[in-house]
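retry 2 of 3: previous attempt timed out while embedding manganese (II) ion. Reduced batch size to 1 and resubmitted. Inputs unchanged:
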Amino acid sequence: MRVVHISDNHLGKAQFHLAEREEDMYEAFDQAIDLALRERPDLIVHTGDLFDSYRPHPRAFVRAFEGFLRVMEKGIPVAIIEGNHELGADTIRRRIVSPLVNLENLFERIGYSDLFVRLGASVRRFGDVVVAGAPYASRGVRVADTIESLGRKVKNICNCPSILMIHQGVRGMIKAVYPEVDFSDIARSPFDYVAMGHYHNKVVRRSGRRVFAYSGSTEVVETREVPIAVREGKFILSLEIDRDGIEIKELRLKTRPFLYFSESVRNTRELYNLIERLMEEASSLQRKPVVVGSLQVTGELRAGFSTVEVRRALSDLALYVNIRELRKLEEAPEESEVVTGIGLEELVQNAISSMKLGDEVRSLSLKVFDLWYKEGKRGEVFVREVLKLAEGES
Ligand SMILES: [Mn+2]
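retry 2 succeeded.
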């Protein structure tokens, strides 16, 4: 059976408050569907965060509907689970349904109930494979127990290849401060392919005949993904799965170009060398890039001057310029900190821990952060709010 794995489209997100970036998310999703259809798959599995919000903009909802309709009109089923972004605080506390339920209802109305299948800790057979899936669960919920019980159900259905779909941080696969599952929990389960969402960079791990994979997001959703995204790109995964094993192909998407730099400049000559290089790179591209970088400024350069100069030079060449200017060398982020990990929570924790706070306030700040994090708010706005809260206390 040919199965395509897609994840984390974050439809509706307008990164940097730009309409162009909202459109980029839609285009990446459309492209993912195009690439998937070219594979002539028997099934598409979607591992969550189709939408950026549990209350998506109608534009995002319509684009998702249109994309999946193209799949279903060809008779191809889609199995999907909710990511944390589809399960906001309201959906849990006030029993508001996730947007995937709305989508499911709509497809049911037009006769596609067999083709759009939302898995809520349940198992379904599609042709010669059994698929189990569970929606995102925050830390504290025993995800490992859910996986174990799904594993038992799968064995009862048929003696055929099996797929598990989860939207979780898995310790041992990625660097995360709040992993909800250990790699051993999925490794000891009986599933042949574990399709994962949540982490936005592609991670494919083979173990004998089995494969564990994060396909990654289809666009850059947060700036911390940029260092890896510029090197590797964004993907969907296509696999041929049968009793003999799994063959996996990584299909790369053509997404908005990003330029990334992390440099220290000591004087205007070094600054203008950098600017010249960025201008050259930006003008060689067919589409305007988003430029993301950090500048460590030392020596004769005034604070803020370099950032203004880079922005000015790239104003016509780039869609958006996002620079962090660091004054002292020791404040520079470790490259590994930027590159790896689910990360944002770690940055916030480190920031809170490094502030001059009383023990009680620090522990309160970390608790507030923990609560908010569990409710799935982990965008840049959220981090700013938490930092503001903590700073206000000091
Ligand atoms: Mn996501």
